[in-house]
# Entry
Amino acid sequence: MQKLIGSKKVKTAVFISGTGSNLKNLIKFSKTKKSPILIDLIISNTNKAKGLIYADIFNIKKKILNFKSNKNAEEKILLITKKNKINLICLAGFMKILSQNFINKFNGKIINIHPSLLPKYKGLNTHEKAIKNKDKFSGCTVHFVTKKLDSGKIIMQKKVKITKNENPNSLAKKILKQEHRLYPAAIIKIFN
# Structure
C-alpha cells in the first residue's frame, strides 16, 4: 500500500449488505487522528441494508446498485470510484462476490474482514462450522481480496475462545467485538 503523503488521508469506499456495524466502526475510526483513511463513499447491493443509515448520519455519499447483472453493477462502481478518487475498498459484510476483472482493476487495494481464522471456513456459516467441528478457537481475519474467495494474503487475525456451551449466535457476537478492533488495526498496519 502506498505511504501516506503528508497528512492526506486515503479516500476509501466501504461496501456493505447488512447492519453496517463494521461500517459504523470504520467511520468512527476514520475520524481519529491516527486513521490513514477517509470514508468518502458507501456502496450497497441492497436498499434493505440497515447500514445505509450511517451514510445519512455521517453525511457520506451512498450508492445502491442492483447486482442482477454483476457486470453492469461493477462497471457503475468503477465509474463511481474513479469519479470519487477512491484508492481503497473495504468490504464489510458485502454479500456479493466481485469479479476477477473488478479485482484486477483495483490492483490489490481491496480488503475484507471475514468471521473465521482463515484459511479455515471460507464462505458462509463460519460459526456453525467451527462449533460443529469442535474447534477450541475461532476468530476473524482481515485479508486482501483476490479472485479466490477468502484466499488473499492475510493482514491480521484475532482469536476468540469457543466455550463449551457456545452457539453460533453467541460466537458471532463475540467475534464481532473483535472485528471492530481488528479492522482498524489491520488498516493501520497496511499503511505503515
In short: The two ends are 9 Å apart (CA to CA). The mean pLDDT is 94.
